[in-house]
Amino acid sequence: MATNPKQVVTLTVNGEAHEVLIEGRRTLADVLRENVGLTGTKLGCEHGVCGACTVLLDGSAVRSCLIFAVQAEGAEIATVEGLAEDGKLDHVQQAFTDNHGLQCGFCTAGMLMSVHALLAENPDPTEDEIRVGLNGNLCRCTGYQNIVKSTAAAAAAGKAARSSAQAS
Amino acid sequence: MSETIIESHLAIRKDKWIGKPTKRVEDPRYLTGTARYVADLELPRMLHAVYVRSPHPHARILSVDTSVLPGLGKSVWVFTGQDLRDVPPLIDHVALDNLLRTPQNVIAIDKVRFVGDAVAVVVAGDRYAAEDAAEQLSAAVEYEVLPPVPSVEAANAPGAALLFDDLGTNEIYRQTEKHGDTEKAFAAADRVFTTRFHHNRYGAAPMETRGVLANYERSEQQLTVWSSTQMPHFLRSVIAGQLGLPEHRVRVIAPEVGGGFGQKMCTSPEEIAIPFIALQLGRPVKWIEDRHEHLLAATQAKEEFINLEVAVSNEGKLLGVRGEFIGDGGGYSFNTESALIEPALAAKSFPGPYRIEAFDEEVAASLTNKSPVAAYRGVGWTAANTVREIMIDEIARELGIDPVEIRRRNMLRSDELPYRSVTGQLYDSGSYLESLELAMKTVDYDAFRTMQERLREQGRYLGLGISSYVEQTAWGSDSSAQAGTPLPSHDNSTVTVDPSGTVTVAVSTSCHGQGHETSYAQIAADGLGVDMADVKVVFGDTLTSPYGLGTYASRSAVIGGATVARASADVREQILKVAANMLEANPDDLVIEDGTISVAGTPSVSKTLAEVAYAAYWDSEVRSDEPMLTSTRFYDPPATYANGCVVVLAEVDADTGVVTLDRIVAIEDCGTVINPMIVEAQVQGAIVQGIGGALFEQFVYGDDGQPLTTTYMDYLIPTSTDVPPIEVLSLESPSPFSIGGIKGMGEGGQIAAPAAVANAVADALAPFGARVRKLPLAPDYVLRLMGKIGSPNG
Ligand code: FES
Ligand code: FES
């Protein structure tokens, strides 16, 4: 087969720089998973509907199956692997396990990243706002009940953390 | 609820853990992105496989010109059906004489029978290169296009093209069976109601598609297959048989599985073809299905036609039913349970929680040029429940009886159980009426009716839909026979305490989201008297787990749970024996609590489990004849039946036909509950899948046999904004038949929800005389039901 030209791209993922040699047509999702070796980001549709591949690009949620890795050069990319610190779950992850917000776990990485983006924009969402904020992430297992509950709990935990930070 | 006394030989130890909403021990790896699904696995020198699939619903393959591919045999490899002609075709396992068989080659040889049927597999060093080559090869396949058979009606029309010429027909099964005296019932009837119902074709669509990675170590003659499967051991047996390998040289691993819902229980042709190719090439080969391919080629579910005649008295008593259940099987009568999986199971489960004493069933299945139909949560039972509950509401409306009242008049009472239904299903125990009453109380039924009436005057259409159900669980030999598709089976667990006193539980069921690592650890912890943190549950690898059928049909809690309880009880006895030697006491006087063994009433005379386990392995003075602290136990339970009731409150927008769900209340009774948090979430998830089937989901095929729903933009699964809050309440009628009184659960929500939604819509649209005759209730159909466009069921 004819081989396509490759180029060197530097991606900053969870604060760490990765240099990869890739074809221009490779999606960010594939490069994160196969070239960088971070397989926590999942592919559920590869056509931009399911949200399983959601990562943060400079803080905004994007579907990594819909953009090329070369487009992410220079941006801060955040994936599920960067959430926990020293093995300690962050407040969103903690809320999801406390409230049984996952079953098979396949949608979970994308869901957690979307929750982070949602709460960054709206730290104190109503239940309706949570539902609207997450309706681009499909989950086939939970029926969303506990995902909504987990997100509300994460928002409350974030709020508590902020006010104790202010008080101290 | 009936007071059920569990007989002592069925009792299990229930102490600190069983019944508690314990947080899941498996969560951290999913939350941190370290859980590995098959797509995440990589092996040295791994190749990537991509399928070339038929663009035609029905065609003969004339030629596949592989010479168009540069680098063939060096950097690109192709396998066609001809290359796999020595692999025997897949055939269903149902033991019925007059069911015609439709052998399916794992890659089509002469003919393709649906859009998406496998024509060739292209293998290359990376997925992108394999996709390029597959695209090139697709253009180099020559077909002779045959007339398509897009529906059951077309399949049985005179002169229809035949999917399998040698069968001489597309209808592969038709059989009638009489239960009770329907002649008498119909003669005694005041009224006879009829319906012709089309249950839609929808499917599991797990978030993780299918995927297989296979590796053959030639020097070891060892094949290892990682597959996103629900049944690793069964798959090992099938692979060994199909590829002619000794079974001990085949190892199947189900890594993390991103949902299955029944779809990943039968053998996919890809699960045979990919290992075959890995064997040929001597290199690891991975195939990961993409979503488009999944919506084309993975099995679909639930499509059937149900025609009913129901004999009733003026008081609304159901006297007798005649039912015809016709399955649309798709291109092949699929392996495992055949095309009867829908119609046969629907027929047998039709009576549900009601006393129906006369029932004639006619079950049929036809082949069509569509993707094959196989299992999806609530097989057959969903369609049966949907049509029955819709019919009951219609009868009530016609007779001027309240829908709750008509159910009360026909429902089996808990003190009438055990009860054998007219179709031979032995309901062990339950709370049919109690579930209904609790649901109605929870939604405040009378208040709803008042509000409904008031809002109707303002032109708003609110409706309430009830759906009561019985869910057959504990799918072993007895359960499958009672369902009408006999499949003998059993499952096993091994519980082992190691020399340090920690516990490993190896089970043959195979988890894909149900939280088995938590539930089984709860059972073992109680059984042994240890902390849950000291228990590790392993499964999904045929090398490390005992043989069994895996996880499907709501069987794991009741079967797997019982095997863990039984093996734990044995090991507990072994521990007590050694401890008795150490403490110079009688084993009967000893207790284990929180990992400490002591003389009952004298806690100071004690040993820790770690001390006892150490001595059991290393101290020849006190060890037993068989020093290892381990036991393997099996279980093949009698059938059990969970039950419940789902009530949906909905509003129909009279201008747009859009249905909005406002509230759902679900009552679930699955006997003894191991982890209520997991049970609640299973109910919620299942209900939302049922909502998908009721409102959005359908695999649509054109008259030309072309699939029209091949992306997630066309095949719509529910999102977070489509579903209302779902309240789940529990009743607990332990089974008098099964170990621990556990029944199993997980499908009831899917079984019940479509009818609850349909009944809510019909109730809302009662002023228009709406009669639901098909699903989904998409806006255009709702407008038809209201007479606003076209004809209602045209
Ligand atoms: S995989 Fe990217 S949106 Fe589905
Ligand atoms: S937890 Fe399985 S898809 Fe969301």
UniProtKB/TrEMBL annotation, chain A:
Which Gene3D superfamilies does the record cross-reference, listed alphabetically? 3.10.20.30, [2Fe-2S]-binding domain
Q: Which UniProt keywords apply?
A: 2Fe-2S, Iron, Iron-sulfur, Metal-binding, Oxidoreductase
As one GO molecular function, the record gives: metal ion binding
| Pathway the protein acts in | Alkaloid degradation; nicotine degradation
Q: Which SUPFAM superfamilies match?
A: 2Fe-2S ferredoxin-like (SSF54292), CO dehydrogenase ISP C-domain like (SSF47741)
Output the superkingdom of the source species: Bacteria
Q: Which residues form the signal peptide?
A: none
Which parts of the chain are coiled coil? none
Q: Which PROSITE patterns match?
A: 2FE2S_FER_1 (PS00197), 2FE2S_FER_2 (PS51085)
Q: Fetch the Pfam families from UniProt.
A: Fer2, Fer2_2
Q: Where is the 2Fe-2S ferredoxin-type domain?
A: 7-83
Name the PANTHER family for this protein: OXIDOREDUCTASE WITH IRON-SULFUR SUBUNIT
Q: What is this protein called?
A: (2Fe-2S)-binding protein
Q: Which organism is it from?
A: Pseudonocardia bannensis
From TrEMBL, chain B:
What does the UniProt keyword field contain?
Molybdenum, Oxidoreductase
Q: Name one Pfam family in it.
A: MoCoBD_1
Gene3D superfamilies assigned: Aldehyde oxidase/xanthine dehydrogenase, a/b hammerhead, Aldehyde oxidase/xanthine dehydrogenase, molybdopterin binding domain
Q: Which domain of life is it from?
A: Bacteria
Co-factor(s): Mo-molybdopterin cytosine dinucleotide
Q: Which residues form the Aldehyde oxidase/xanthine dehydrogenase a/b hammerhead domain?
A: 32-147
Output the Gene Ontology terms for molecular function. Answer: iron ion binding; oxidoreductase activity
Please identify the protein, giving its name as recorded: Xanthine dehydrogenase family protein
